[in-house]
Specification:
Alkaline Phosphatase, subunit A, about 15% strand, 3 domains
């Protein structure tokens, strides 16, 4: 066995001319075996596992391409690097179609060969080393910025940096995961203090406030409509900024992202409040006062977001806009198919608002279903599951069809979600809502230092249902638990994704404006 533990097969009918290359690789610690034709190579691969194969294209007997096809049947997981004198495009196309790992043109030098090996076999180690070093050098700067962040824009920058490093380190071996987790926790705790100090002030001073749910359509959609653009306003329920960063890698192939600035969800970071606020352009207390027929109280069994289309109509009417519009909610495959079937009709509208509920359902399913809970056991797995959904979703097909149309796409969400760990005891009567990250009701009992409390709902533009109505919000990675059957309750909900409270993940959320790269 070689020092590196890596075993390579080099297949070339002129292998004797490559002795210097092979000696060079052996000096670097690689174990190299050779074959002079495809038949011998296939026999060796049947009996020996190789980490990588170099394969000449032009050989007597069976060609390199024919050998490649059979190699893939035998060992589809082994990377094959094709080496050829030919620069003909059809040979390249066939090789790439057979999923080669790399394609080199003769004459090759030893350094080219070494680089190719490192790219395909040492990549993870090199990525780990580079990203670890990069994060270590940035750690101190991020820590200083966490302590010196005085504006909502500062916190957007911090959150973007933390997500960037989380996604970068995810490609490595996990050696820095604990350090990053500690820094994220520190950031979340400091962000909570920032929100508690500033949130009510934002509602009374728009100049100091970030862009929030109630002004999202006004700031991001109406200006496009007023310029004569047709707009698809797509809301993915419960969609975090890290999930957007993952999907962006796929979507950017078809779309040019013109604006990618996160905005802030209002409190509670829950669908009933945040999404109704988006579509109405109003805060929750204003909706209840101005359009009571479209507001559903927390204790009602009725769906809390049945009137989003109607609320969007009131927003356009309030601004005296005559744009044609339609609203669709996609909660299953049939609804997605119907949307795609009707797309040619919807394209006649100035504005189409489409809500996709899958990510929200995924979050709830993770709580309810043991299998989903295992599949989405942490943030990385949660992102992966979201990407898997997107790859097979009607949303992806919708975006594919829209890219060649003359429309702008505004892609956003109503709130994010956070993984909860720490139970906080709260006591309330039977009318208290069931959300684990915020509670609304009368006669709530709790430790005030463990929550963000709003004792006068009007100050937070929240509905007041009786004279003693109060709201409390969980922060950091806390969740509310009742003393009754406490241990079972805590065990069931710990390590699940919840929303409604204060955290970077719940409040700082994506809003992206983009247009298609026309075919």
């Amino acid at each position: 066995m070689s020092e590196s533990g890596i075993k390579i097969l080099w297949v070339d009918d002129e292998i004797e001319h490559l002795k210097a290359h092979i000696l060079f690789l052996k000096e670097k610690g690689y174990d190299v075996e050779t074959a002079t034709n495809g038949y011998d190579a296939l026999e060796l691969v049947k009996s020996t596992f190789y980490d990588l194969i170099f394969l000449d294209e032009n050989m007597p007997g069976i060609t390199g391409l024919e050998t490649l096809s059979q190699l893939k049947e035998l060992r589809s997981e082994v990377p094959v690097i094709m080496i050829t004198k030919s620069e003909e495009e059809d040979i390249m196309d066939q090789a790439i179609g057979n999923q080669i790992a790399d394609y080199l043109i003769k004459p090759v030098n030893p350094r080219q060969i070494l680089l190719s090996i490192k790219k395909h076999l040492d990549k993870k180690d090199l990525v780990t080393k580079t990203t670890t070093s990069g994060y270590q050098s940035q750690f101190g700067q991020i820590a200083l910025k966490i302590n010196d962040s005085f504006s909502h824009d500062d916190w957007v920058d911090i959150y973007k940096k933390l997500i960037y490093w989380e996604l970068e380190l995810e490609q490595g071996d996990g050696t820095m995961d604990e350090v990053l987790s500690m820094q994220k926790n520190e950031a979340t705790q400091t962000f909570t203090k920032f929100v508690k100090k500033n949130y009510l002030g934002w509602l009374n001073n728009l100049e100091e406030a970030p862009l929030m749910s109630n002004n999202l359509v006004k700031e991001k959609v109406l200006p496009l409509l007023n310029k004569g653009e047709k707009v698809f306003f797509i809301v993915i329920d419960n969609f975090r900024y890290d999930q957007w960063e993952v999907l962006k890698k796929v979507i950017s192939a078809d779309y040019l992202v013109e604006d990618d600035n996160p905005y802030y969800s209002i409190l509670p970071t829950a669908t009933q409040y945040a999404r109704n606020s988006i579509f109405s352009g109003l805060m929750p207390s204003q909706i209840k006062e101005m359009f009571p027929q479209f507001w559903v109280d927390d204790d009602s069994e009725e769906g809390k977001n049945k009137y989003e289309g109607e609320l969007l109509g009131t927003l356009l009417e309030r601004f005296r806009l005559k744009h044609s519009y339609a609203y669709r909610k996609i909660s299953d495959g049939d609804a997605g198919k119907n949307l795609l079937d009707e797309l040619h009709i919807l394209l006649n509208n100035d504005l189409n608002a489409v809500v996709f509920n899958f990510v929200d359902m995924l979050s709830h399913a993770r709580t309810e279903m043991k299998m989903i809970k295992e599949l989405a056991r942490d943030e990385a797995a949660y992102r992966s599951l979201t990407q898997s959904w997107f790859d097979h979703s009607s949303l992806k097909e919708l975006l594919r069809r829209l890219k060649d149309e003359n429309v702008k796409v505004v892609l956003t969400t109503d709130h994010g979600t956070t993984r909860v760990q720490n139970p906080v005891k709260v006591v309330g009567d039977r009318n208290v809502n069931t959300n684990l990250r915020y509670k609304q009701g009368k006669n709530l009992s709790y430790k005030s230092k463990e929550v963000y409390e709003v004792l006068k709902p009007g100050q937070a533009s929240l509905p007041r249902y009786n004279v003693s109505t109060a709201y409390i919000f969980a922060f950091n990675n806390d969740f509310f638990a009742y003393p009754n059957n406490y241990n079972h309750y805590v065990s069931y909900y710990r390590d699940t994704f919840q929303h409604g409270g204060i955290s970077l993940e719940e409040m700082i959320i994506p809003c992206v404006t983009m247009r298609g790269r026309k075919s």
